[in-house]
């Protein structure tokens, strides 16, 4: 029989995965798998388990929030560096925002997601690396980026998206532009930026369609870059807020581009988040797109929402 390793974070979301384990295991069993179940107990467990056991299974299914998924990608990278063949990946989202799942059209209901993880179509998905560390869908700095990892897990579990809004409001008084020199393969420019993100997703922080009408594909070998310039006057601030509310990425206050490589350099240390978790505070950050970095199970294209189907076009 085919072998499946199921790694789950029992604390993600509201620990709802615990009550659904029997249903999920039955789905895997009906799909013809012999199942090994491993809960995570501390940070980094998913990375260690995947790196150590990658070649022993036909499919590895990970359940948790975006941080657990980020650990899974680190395990994939370590396994590949050791020359191990990595199996197909299934993902059951049980976090507070589940941006990666939304972009791929993976159901946020754990039981339906388990069905996709066991029997869905395999999609080769890009990811990014941040100074060599992989991230599934976003690396970000500046305003609000401290919110996701500064919000206590208990508050996340209780309030969900509202927790991020509350913590974001608290940080408004501290927002200050960060002076960066930015370099891509095509250009070099400088400026002070309130916020920046490099992503492979159309859902960030629980907000879907964040790039408006701009095209986003998850396997085109490119990352999307959004930088928000620091306004110099109250009038510029008002104009910026209006442009952002209308998702006007052609605003004079916004830098929007696609790239395979981008480097941010600052004279001081700058905190970043990777997939919603603290990613370090380097003064120089090199971010690269990794084409077809991993193979993940997604719903059949005829069952996908139109928005997700567009992002998963081959």
Annotate the secondary structure layout.
Elements: E1 2-8, H1 17-30, E2 33-39, H2 45-53, E3 59-64, H3 66-81, E4 88-93, H4 99-104, H5 110-119, E5 121-130, E6 133-135, E7 138-142, H6 147-150, H7 153-159, H8 161-171, E8 178-184, E9 188-199, E10 203-204, E11 207-208, E12 223-229, H9 234-245, E13 254-259, E14 261-265, E15 272-274, E16 277-278, E17 284-298, H10 306-311
Parallel strand pairs: 1-2, 1-3, 3-4
Antiparallel strand pairs: 5-6, 5-17, 7-9, 7-15, 8-9, 8-14, 9-12, 10-11, 12-13, 14-17, 15-16
Helix pairs in contact: 1-5, 2-3, 7-8
Fold and architecture overview:
- This protein is of the alpha+beta class.
- It folds into two domains: 2-126 and 293-311, 3-Layer(aba) Sandwich (Rossmann fold); 135-291, Tumour Suppressor Smad4 (Sandwich).
- 30% of the residues lie in helices and 33% in strands.
- The protein contains ten helices and 17 strands.
- The chain has helices at residues 17-30, 45-53, 66-81, 99-104, 110-119, 147-150, 153-159, 161-171, 234-245, 306-311; strands spanning 2-8, 33-39, 59-64, 88-93, 121-130, 133-135, 138-142, 178-184, 188-199, 203-204, 207-208, 223-229, 254-259, 261-265, 272-274, 277-278, 284-298.
- Strands 5, 6, 7, 8, 9, 12, 13, 14, 15, 16 and 17 form an eleven-stranded antiparallel beta sheet that branches. A four-stranded parallel beta sheet has the order 2-1-3-4, sandwiched between helices.
- β1, α1 (17-30) and β2 (33-39) form a beta-alpha-beta unit.
- α2 (45-53) runs parallel beside α3.
- The longest helix is centred in the N-terminal third of the chain and has 16 residues, at 66-81.
- The two termini are 31 Å apart.
- 44% of the residues are buried.
- The mean pLDDT is 83.
């Amino acid at each position: 029989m085919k072998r499946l390793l199921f790694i789950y974070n029992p604390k993600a979301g509201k620990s709802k995965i615990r009550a659904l384990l029997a249903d999920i295991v039955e789905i895997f069993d009906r799909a013809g798998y012999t199942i090994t179940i491993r809960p995570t107990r501390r940070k980094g467990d998913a990375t260690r388990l995947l790196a150590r056991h990658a070649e022993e299974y036909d499919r590895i299914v990970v359940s948790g929030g975006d941080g657990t998924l980020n650990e899974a990608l680190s395990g994939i990278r370590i396994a590949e560096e050791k020359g191990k063949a990595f199996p197909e990946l299934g993902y059951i989202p049980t976090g507070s925002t589940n941006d990666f799942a939304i972009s791929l059209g993976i159901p946020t209901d754990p039981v339906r997601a388990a069905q996709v993880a066991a029997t869905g179509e395999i999609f080769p998905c890009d990811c990014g690396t941040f100074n060599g560390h992989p991230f599934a869908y976003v690396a970000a700095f500046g305003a609000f980026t401290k919110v996701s990892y500064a919000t206590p897990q208990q508050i996340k579990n209780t309030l969900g998206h509202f927790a991020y809004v509350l913590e974001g409001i608290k940080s408004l008084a501290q927002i200050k532009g960060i002076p960066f020199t930015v370099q891509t393969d095509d250009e070099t420019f400088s400026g002070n930026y309130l916020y920046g993100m490099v992503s492979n997703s159309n859902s960030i922080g629980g907000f879907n369609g964040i790039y408006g009408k701009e095209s986003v594909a998850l396997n085109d070998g490119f990352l999307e870059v959004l930088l928000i310039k620091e306004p110099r006057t109250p009038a510029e601030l008002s104009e910026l807020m209006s442009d952002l509310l209308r998702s006007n990425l052609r605003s004079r206050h916004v830098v929007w581009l696609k790239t395979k490589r981008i480097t941010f350099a600052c004279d001081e240390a700058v905190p970043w988040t990777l997939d919603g978790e603290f990613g370090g505070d380097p003064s120089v950050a090199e971010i690269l797109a990794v084409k077809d970095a991993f193979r993940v199970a997604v719903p059949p294209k005829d069952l996908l929402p139109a928005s997700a189907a567009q992002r998963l076009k081959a």
